[in-house]
Design a protein that fits this description.
Layout: E1 5-10, H1 15-26, E2 30-35, E3 40-42, E4 51-53, H2 59-76, H3 79-89, E5 105-108, H4 111-123, E6 131-137, H5 143-162, H6 166-181, E7 185-191
Parallel strand pairs: 1-2, 1-5, 5-6
Antiparallel strand pairs: 3-4, 6-7
Length: 192
Amino acid sequence: MGRVKYAVICSSNQNRSMEAHALLSKKGFDVCSYGSGNNVKLPGPTPDQPNVYEFNTPYNDIYAELASKDNAFYTGNGILSMLDRNRKIKTAPERFADAKPLFDVIITCEERVFDQVLEVLEARDSRTFRPVHIINIDIKDNHEEATVGAALIFKMCQAFDQADDLEVKIEEVLDEFQRKHARTLLHSIAFY
């Protein structure tokens, strides 16, 4: 099949997708990462007071603002560390609904986001009728699970890249992955 182009998408806080983006990029994969929803939400001082940013707000700006608000708090909960990692990968968080590139495989990290991605793709006019595989692997939204999830996504992408014909072998690859890693996956196909 040649080089597979990947997108990893999660909810608006993007920890899981950025962890996977960092690992896949380091391993030489052609990958982008996105958030879903209308804005970026990061934990605030209380659950009902998140820090909300527009997509495309530079990670440097978000980092600086949270460090000035309460450096000890945002260092302690890992948000500044996460933002520091993110700003080394790309300039700002991006929203999938605004994405222009065409992907071969889109990986989501929760079922709700899987459904949102399908809605976005179905709402677009298909011009090329090029297939894109959307796969969901549920990953809890915390630092430890994001690391474990990134490793699983990496293994999945390795298997896709090793398939001699991804279009023909994808179900076989996904079945083997589910058996080997005891994870349930969702899979759908949409067209660009």
